[in-house]
C-alpha cells in the first residue's frame, strides 16, 4: 500500500520459502481466515493486478504460490464445517488432524458469520465454489436463527442444536463483524441477498439497539448510542459498550447513513480524547472503563478514514493525527508498539497484535 516494492518482494519471498500449514497446530477458524488467509489472498491480488496501483509490485517468476498456500490453508479449515447439524462451523480446527475431539459445540456469531469475504474471493480465484458455499451456508444458518419477535441475533450459538447460548444482541465482541461482512460481501460480490440481509439487520439494530435522541444533531435527550439487549425481548442487558463497536460508524458511511456515522464516531472519539486510547469496555452509565486495556485496535481509525473519504472534512485529519500522537506518546516501545494494560495508568503489556500493523497503521497511513 505504501509502494515499498523491495520490502514487499522480500516479505513475499520469505513467506513462499518458509511458510507451511502442515503442522499439528490448533487454530481459530475466524482468526486464521481474516488474518492469514486474507493476507495471502490480498498479497496475491496485489502481485497479479494488471493495473499495479501501488507501483511495481510484481514478483519475478511468480507462479501463484501465495494462492496455492491460501488454498492449502482453506482446505485445512474445511473440516470445521463438517459434522455440524446447522452448517455453522466449529470455532477451532487442527491444521493436521481436523476438528479436535474435545471441541466445544459453541461459537460466536462474528466468528462463524465473518468468513464470506475471504472464502468468496478464494472460490472466485480458484473457480471452485466449495469455499464460498460453506461460508454462505453458515451465514444463512445464523440468519435463520434470528428472533421472530425482534429480528435480532444473539452472540453465542450451539452449532449442533442451533440453540442460542448467548442471548446478548449488540454491535461489539461476538457480533460486530457479522454485520460488517454482510455489507462488505455485497459491495465486493454484488449478491442481492447479502444486501437484503444487511438492510433487515440494520433496521432491527436501529429499532432495538439504538438509544438516545431520534435525530443525531438536534432534539432532546442524549446523543445516539447502541446498547446490548436481549435478542428476544429487546430489553437492556448491561450498561457497557466495547471498543470493537467503533467499527460501526464506518459501516454506516458505507451504507450511506453519514449523519448518524458522524454522531457515533464523535462519541468514541470523545472517549479516546479522555484517555488517549479506547478502553476495551466502557460503562456509559458510570462514564468509566469497565475493562481498561487497549490492544491497539483499528476500529476507530477505520471509521475515521471512511468518514474522511465521505466528507473530506479536515476534522478527520485532525482526529487521525491525534490518534497517531497518542499512540506515539503512550504505546511506543523499544521494538514496536505495546498493548496498553490500563488506559488510565498507561501501563503496557508485552504484546503487539497483528492487526496493529495490518489495520491500525494502514488506516492511519491512508488518512
From TrEMBL:
Swiss-Prot/TrEMBL GO biological process terms: carbohydrate metabolic process; endoplasmic reticulum mannose trimming; positive regulation of retrograde protein transport, ER to cytosol; response to unfolded protein
Protein name from the UniProt record: alpha-1,2-Mannosidase
Protein's gene: Edem1
Domain of life where this protein originates: Eukaryota
Entry function: Extracts misfolded glycoproteins, but not glycoproteins undergoing productive folding, from the calnexin cycle. It is directly involved in endoplasmic reticulum-associated degradation (ERAD) and targets misfolded glycoproteins for degradation in an N-glycan-independent manner, probably by forming a complex with SEL1L. It has low mannosidase activity, catalyzing mannose trimming from Man8GlcNAc2 to Man7GlcNAc2.
Topological relation to the membrane, as annotated: Single-pass type II membrane protein
UniProt-annotated catalytic positions: 31 (proton donor), 176, 280 (proton donor), 299
Endoplasmic reticulum recorded as keyword: yes
GO molecular function terms noted in the UniProt entry: calcium ion binding; mannosyl-oligosaccharide 1,2-alpha-mannosidase activity
GO CC, any one term: endoplasmic reticulum membrane
Subcellular location: Endoplasmic reticulum membrane
Coiled-coil ranges (or none): none
Recorded family membership: Belongs to the glycosyl hydrolase 47 family.
Enzyme Commission no: 3.2.1.-
Principal place of residence: endoplasmic reticulum
Enzyme class (EC, first level): hydrolase
Keywords: Endoplasmic reticulum, Glycoprotein, Glycosidase, Hydrolase, Membrane, Signal-anchor, Transmembrane, Transmembrane helix, Unfolded protein response
Organism (species): Oxylabes madagascariensis (white-throated Oxylabes)
Zinc as UniProt keyword: no
Amino acid at each position: 500500500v505504501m509502494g515499498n516494492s523491495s520490502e514487499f518482494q522480500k516479505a513475499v519471498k520469505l513467506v513462499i520459502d518458509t511458510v507451511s500449514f502442515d503442522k499439528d497446530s490448533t487454530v481459530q477458524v475466524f482468526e486464521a481466515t481474516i488474518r492469514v488467509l486474507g493476507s495471502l489472498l490480498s498479497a496475491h491480488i496485489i502481485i497479479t493486478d494488471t493495473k499495479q496501483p501501488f507501483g511495481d509490485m510484481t514478483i519475478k517468476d511468480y507462479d501463484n504460490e501465495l494462492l496455492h498456500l491460501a488454498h492449502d490453508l482453506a482446505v485445512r479449515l474445511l473440516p470445521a464445517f463438517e459434522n455440524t447439524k446447522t452448517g455453522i462451523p466449529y470455532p477451532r480446527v487442527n491444521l493436521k488432524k481436523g476438528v479436535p475431539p474435545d471441541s466445544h459445540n459453541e461459537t460466536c456469531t462474528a466468528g462463524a458469520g465473518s468468513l464470506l469475504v475471504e472464502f468468496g474471493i478464494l472460490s472466485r480465484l480458484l473457480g471452485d465454489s466449495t469455499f464460498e458455499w460453506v461460508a454462505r451456508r453458515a451465514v444463512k444458518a445464523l440468519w435463520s436463527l434470528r428472533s421472530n419477535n425482534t429480528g435480532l441475533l444473539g452472540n453465542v450459538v450451539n452449532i449442533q442444536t442451533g440453540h442460542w447460548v448467548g442471548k446478548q444482541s449488540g454491535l461489539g465482541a461476538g457480533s460486530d463483524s457479522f454485520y460488517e461482512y454482510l455489507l462488505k460481501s455485497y459491495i465486493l460480490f454484488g449478491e442481492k441477498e447479502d444486501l437484503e440481509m444487511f438492510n433487515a439487520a440494520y433496521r432491527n439494530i436501529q429499532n432495538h439497539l439504538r438509544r438516545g435522541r431520534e435525530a443525531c444533531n438536534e432534539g432532546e435527550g442524549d446523543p445516539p448510542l447502541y446498547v446490548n439487549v436481549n435478542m428476544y425481548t429487546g430489553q437492556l442487558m448491561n450498561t457497557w459498550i466495547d471498543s470493537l463497536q467503533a467499527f460501526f460508524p464506518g459501516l454506516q458511511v458505507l451504507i450511506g447513513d453519514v449523519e448518524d456515522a458522524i454522531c457515533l464516531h464523535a462519541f468514541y472519539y470523545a472517549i479516546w480524547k479522555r484517555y488517549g486510547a479506547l478502553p476495551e469496555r466502557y460503562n456509559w452509565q458510570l462514564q468509566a472503563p469497565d475493562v481498561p486495556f487497549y490492544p491497539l485496535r483499528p476500529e476507530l481509525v477505520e471509521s475515521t478514514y471512511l468518514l474522511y473519504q465521505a466528507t473530506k472534512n479536515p476534522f478527520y485529519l485532525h482526529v487521525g493525527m491525534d490518534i497517531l500522537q497518542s499512540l506515539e506518546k503512550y504505546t511506543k516501545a523499544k521494538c514496536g508498539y505495546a498493548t496498553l494494560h490500563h488506559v488510565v495508568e498507561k501501563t503496557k503489556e508485552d504484546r503487539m497484535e497483528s492487526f496493529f500493523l495490518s489495520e491500525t497503521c494502514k488506516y492511519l497511513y491512508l488518512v
